[in-house]
Amino acid sequence: MHHPFRLNTLAAAIALMSPGVWADNTSNAPMMDEVSVTATREERPTADVPQSIAVVGKATLEQKKMFNIKEALQEVPGVLIDSKNGGFDARLIIRGAGLKAPYGIREIMVLRDGVPMTDPDSFTRLDFIDTQDIERIEIAKGPGNLFAAGSAGGAIQIISKSVFDTGGNSARIGLGNMGTQNYHLRHGVVGEKHAFAVTATHRTMENDWRAWNEFDTTQVSLKHGWMLNDQDVLESELSYAEANMQLPGGMDATQFKSFRDTGRQTGTSSAWEHSGRYSKVWFFNSRLEIERGDVTFKPRFYYNTWYHNHPVTGIINETAEWVSNIGTDLEMNWRHTGGTLVGGLTVRKENIPDSRKYEYRDVRTSGTGRILATLSDAKGDLAEIDKGSSLLTALYAQESWRPAKDWIVDVGLRYDVIHIEETANELRSYNYSTGKYVTGSGIQKTDKTFRLPAPKLAISYKLTPQLTAFGVIAQAGQIPSTGEISSNPDLQAPVSRNIEFGLKGRSQDWQFDASVYFTKVKDEIVQINTGGTTEYANAGKTDKKGAELSASVQLGHGFEFGGHYAYSDYTYDSFSEPVRVGMTTTNQDRAGNQLPFVPKQQYGTFIGWKSPTGWRARLAANSWGEYYLDNANSEKYSGWNWVMNLSVGYEKGQHALMLNLDNLTDRRYAAEVKKDTSGVITYTAAAPRQVMLTYRYAFK
After folding, report:
1. In this predicted model, what pLDDT tens digit does every residue of 632-676 receive, in sequence order?
2. Which of 17, 151, 308, 553 maximizes the CB count within 10 A of its CB?
3. Alpha helix (H) ranges present in 133-281?
4. Contact 418, 452 (CB under 8 A)
5. Number of Cα atoms under 13 Å in the Cβ half of residue 453
6. Going by C-beta distance under 8 Å and a sequence separation of 6 or more, which residues neighbour residue 44?
7. C-alpha distances out from residue 475 to 52, 159, 398, 572, 682, Å
8. Phi-psi label, residue 235: left if phi above 0, alpha if psi -120 to 50, beta otherwise
């Protein structure tokens, strides 16, 4: 009794390019190419995917403490990721996409086992993803992805441990500094036709090096797999998550200097000292796979409902009634003589029946009444009542034609239609000029429809058994979020057009991926920071040019060495930025300026070792080059160099120990520096050295 798709995928996930299988104590086992399904909705070795794609496999993930997906993705060129508190608050940018988001993930599609985590209006939360239950992560960069609904930055797919894999059954306990604790249990059974797996995780960090920086989450899931026959399988999952996260404020220059001197942040320059996100999420999904000859049908159904309390700058957000997301994806795969045809339909709807905003109740004010600081995150007077919905419908198709043995030609199209409705009754609002709450603007209605075609033509050609060249031309549109449209109803949907060429090498002793790309973006949505408030506007055009390289080589005796490099040259071709001085707003020409925050150079290296006696170690060092702080390019931050992470582990039988030391040399630097149009510079501190020891017991 077997299922080809599931078992093949599982086998591919076990054969990983990172050190994991060792022939003897003098040489490494041959490297195996990863298998990807994210870029094309078809299982392929990454060498045969005519697009930039990276896969972070099981062996690499096992050497991370995995409190946050940052730990898995920070060595991927072209991917910029960081976290304020080590929880689920990752800020993620792929080739400049996602730059506009001050919190959460925008412009990038995030999936888990083929099921979207991203809302129809393009916003992604990570609070209900159990990072302890990840088998591998696939990152497909740039436009032209069949999974990426209204997302120009590409797609990230998180593959969880299969319900049919009892090799993942284990108990794990981790303890570290900063009040770090991790408890994880997974146990499953596989019968002749049915499989069950229960997963429970609790993570917490006190982060006592900085005030208002605690994080905890508790997640429980039940998975079920049903082998209907030799070809068909039904998998379902029900999960619940509670997550609590305090979001610390930034610092001014004096406070940042104190942090660099002491390693502790004792204060914040922000008046809003009690920001956070506290959520509860139920999530259900069911995936059926039916195979009949050369045709495979893959219907998916998913539903999640969530509540949150989310204090932010000036206001406290709360869902008076739970928000619901429901959707389906009906995919068909036909393997024919000339290649493979993939097509399908996606429908997703989010409903927000009653969302409310409140003033902060406890504040400290000046003699003029300006709010100087919050004293708690307690709710005050009701400020706004919102309700709304967003509906995404999409058709997609791709022909993967194989005209000859060494050629693959992908011709595809995805067409997304997104309809957004919202009614907001603003009773009170926070005025950034006066620093006070004032009478709101009353009832405002939003009713917008965006139609976003995303065509792609991609070609790969195997030059030799080890080398494959590829080229791709693709376009994708980006869905503006509901909040962005509310702040600026005239926003247009950005359109990205990308041309990319690359070379991939695969050998038993080495691997590399190299690419250059040229992306033109029309109506890019940019973030404008004006006196403490965040606004959004369309830049006329932006021009993104870049090059990326990642490589690794086996050195023998259990050693592997590798590194990555990304060069990013992103400029505004035309952009007139609104700048507010006092009560007056003027437009400033930013044409020719670099986009802020994105460093021109990002690079890193690693060396790993594994012994047949059970010992292993991995040392990695990462760097971000300098970048501009604002659209005006008035000032630069120097970035940071060679921040090192070390892991040392030992495994014997059913027992394993792993010691993780992140930021090994205790570098004190800023994870982000930004400057608003009034000239105020804010520093967000990166975490100092973090130490964690984890014990894992594998059940037989």
Report:
1. 999 999 999 999 999 999 999 999 999 999 999 999 999 999 998
2. 151
3. 253-262
4. yes
5. 4
6. 35, 36, 37
7. 15, 26, 14, 19, 35
8. beta
Pairing of strands 371-374, 584-589: unpaired
Q: Which residues contact 8 (CB under 8 A, 6 or more apart)?
A: 35, 43
Cα separations (Å) of 313 from 271, 272, 316, 597?
A: 8, 6, 8, 21
Task: Return the CATH number at 564.
Answer: 2.40.170.20
Cα–Cα distance between 442 and 243 in angstroms, integer?
33
The pair phi, psi for residue 459, each rounded to 5°, is: -135, 135
- What type of residue sits at position 389? S
The kind and range of the H/E element at 174 are strand 170-176
What is the C-alpha end-to-end distance of the chain, expressed in Å?
22
CB 700 within 8 A of CB 654: yes
Radius of gyration of the chain, Cα coordinates, nearest whole angstrom: 25
Instruction: Give tens-digit pLDDT for 189-243.
Output: 999 999 999 999 999 999 999 989 999 999 999 999 999 998 899 999 999 999 9
**DSSP conformation letters of 351-375:** EEEEEEEEEESSEEE-TT--EEEES
Domain that residue 681 falls in: 4-698
> What does the DSSP 8-state code read for residue 123?
-
Chain-centroid distance of CA 22 in Å reads 32
Q: Which residues pair with 581 in a beta bridge?
A: 584
Contact 621, 604 (CB under 8 A): yes
> Can you tell me the distance from the alpha carbon of 163 to that of 226, in angstroms, rounded to the nearest whole number?
10
Residue ranges of the alpha helices (H) in 64-103? 70-73
The count of domains in the chain is 1
